[in-house]
């Protein structure tokens, strides 16, 4: 097992500088407003294509399919710079973070050749189809059905809270493909085109007035055999692997753009500010170190990766929620423009959802405790 130093990131100043130059050029070419939670809320297909043309989507993936075969640390440096800038990365986010890796791990050669180069180019966007009405935390209870028909599958059911489904081309959809006593068996994943006959994508408006997630209804949707990702019945194993990628990224400690705002607005911190800033720095660096550990140890067993991801998401999202409160206190009366005030408001409105999406804190803590308890997660 190769242990790489956490400080390795500090050795990537040139790459970080390139990303910052690119962001400045994009701002000049097609101005965007920095966003809170940019990976969920701020999408620009044009920005994703521009990022793809730099080779910054699928950076770690095999060259054979258009990837860059870079290290996970190089990818992380790019991702941290993009999130810190509040850049409009939401269009390609899920495709890059978890769907592409899922296709590379479980897909057929045909699927890899069809999907991966398009994702890398920033042209193909995905939604994650796990949650359903009544099946969120209890994901194994999904009721969306996939039935075998000649030449393919017929899908019926509904997904909910599907982020970005209104701009995605495909949804990786978790379905029940066989009835089984064991709830974790009989689940399969399908790559479903969202423009297929019988699919309805209905945006849901949230508290802040935005409609960033959707309900997606499947009514006798026919997909061919090639839409099945991985082996039939392997859906649970695949989904938990994807959730580990979802829970363990930089978006768990640097997604809110608030640190960037604090750095800009508190160039001369008062004595009172120091305690808040010190608390921010300590918490953020601890979560980051935890997240980097998984990257550093490439051969970590899957069970251990899942446990680590649950730890990062639990500690990271609690940090981010507190960060909103810290920023509100620190920046109150000190943010000069309406734009900054709107960002702070947006952070406050988003705060409750931070510990829900990707698995709630209560559920993560159950995973953490049972993982430690059963030894499945021990290194
Ligand atoms: C902003 C946002 C974006 C999202 N994007 C997506 C997406 O793109 N794709 C997708 O599939 N889903 C998405 N989700 C859904 C998200 O994964 C679910 O909201 C989450 O898993 C919780 O499920 P639920 O909403 O059904 O709540 P429930 O499962 O009904 O939970 C309600 C409450 O009960 C608690 N609870 C439930 N079970 C237990 C237990 N066993 N022990 C202790 N407490 C428990 C929970 O912690 C929670 O507080 C998104 C959610 C949000 C908020």
UniProtKB/TrEMBL annotation:
Q: Which domain of life is it from?
A: Bacteria
Concerning InterPro entries, the annotation shows: Acyl-CoA_DH_CS, Acyl-CoA_Oxase/DH_mid-dom, Acyl-CoA_Oxase/DH_mid-dom_sf, AcylCoA_DH/ox_N, AcylCoA_DH/ox_N_sf, AcylCoA_DH/oxidase_NM_dom_sf, Mycobact_Acyl-CoA_DH
Pfam families xref list: Acyl-CoA_dh_M, Acyl-CoA_dh_N
Residues in Acyl-CoA dehydrogenase/oxidase N-terminal domain copies: 15-122
> Where is the chain membrane-spanning?
none
Q: Where is the Acyl-CoA oxidase/dehydrogenase middle domain?
A: 127-221
**GO molecular function term, any single one:** flavin adenine dinucleotide binding
Entry keyword annotation includes Metal-binding: no
Protein name (record) = Acyl-CoA dehydrogenase
Look up the record and report any one GO term of the cellular component aspect.
Answer: plasma membrane
Keywords attached to this Swiss-Prot or TrEMBL record, sorted alphabetically, are:
Oxidoreductase
Q: Does the keyword Hydrolase apply?
A: no
- What high-level taxonomic lineage is stated for the organism? Bacteria, Bacillati, Actinomycetota, Actinomycetes, Mycobacteriales
């Amino acid at each position: 097992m190769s242990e790489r130093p956490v400080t390795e990131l500090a050795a990537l100043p040139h790459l970080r500088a390139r990303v910052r130059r690119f962001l400045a050029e994009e701002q000049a070419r097609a101005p965007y407003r920095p966003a809170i939670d940019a990976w969920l809320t701020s999408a620009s297909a044009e920005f994703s294509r521009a990022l793809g043309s730099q080779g910054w989507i699928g950076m770690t993936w095999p060259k054979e399919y258009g990837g860059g075969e870079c290290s996970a640390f190089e990818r992380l440096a790019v991702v941290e710079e993009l999130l810190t800038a509040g850049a409009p990365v939401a269009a390609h986010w899920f495709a890059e973070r978890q769907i592409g890796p899922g296709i590379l791990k479980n897909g057929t050669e045909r699927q890899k050749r069809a999907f991966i180069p398009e994702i890398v180019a920033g042209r193909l966007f995905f939604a994650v189809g796990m949650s359903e009405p009544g099946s969120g935390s209890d994901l194994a209870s999904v009721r969306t059905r996939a039935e075998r028909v000649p030449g393919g599958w017929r899908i019926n059911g509904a997904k909910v809270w599907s982020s970005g489904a209104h701009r995605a081309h495909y949804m990786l959809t978790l379905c029940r493909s066989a009835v089984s006593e064991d709830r974790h068996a009989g689940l399969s994943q399908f790559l479903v085109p969202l423009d297929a006959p019988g699919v309805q994508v209905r945006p849901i408006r949230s508290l802040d007035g935005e409609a960033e997630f959707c309900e997606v209804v499947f009514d006798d949707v026919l997909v061919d055999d090639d839409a099945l990702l991985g082996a039939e019945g392997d859906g649970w194993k695949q989904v938990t692997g994807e959730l580990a990628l979802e829970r363990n990224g930089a978006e768990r400690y640097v997604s809110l753009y608030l640190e960037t705002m604090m750095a800009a607005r508190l160039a001369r911190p008062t004595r009172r500010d120091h305690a808040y800033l010190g608390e921010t720095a300590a918490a953020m660096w601890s979560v980051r170190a935890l997240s980097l550990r998984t990257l550093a140890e490439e051969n970590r067993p899957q069970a251990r990766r899942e446990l680590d991801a649950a730890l990062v998401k639990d500690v990271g999202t609690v940090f981010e929620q507190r960060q909103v409160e810290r920023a509100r206190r620190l920046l109150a009366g000190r943010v000069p423009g309406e734009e900054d005030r709107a960002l702070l408001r947006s952070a406050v409105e988003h705060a409750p959802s931070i510990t829900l999406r990707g698995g709630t804190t209560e559920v993560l803590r159950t995973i953490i405790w049972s993982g430690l308890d059963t030894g499945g997660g021990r290194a």
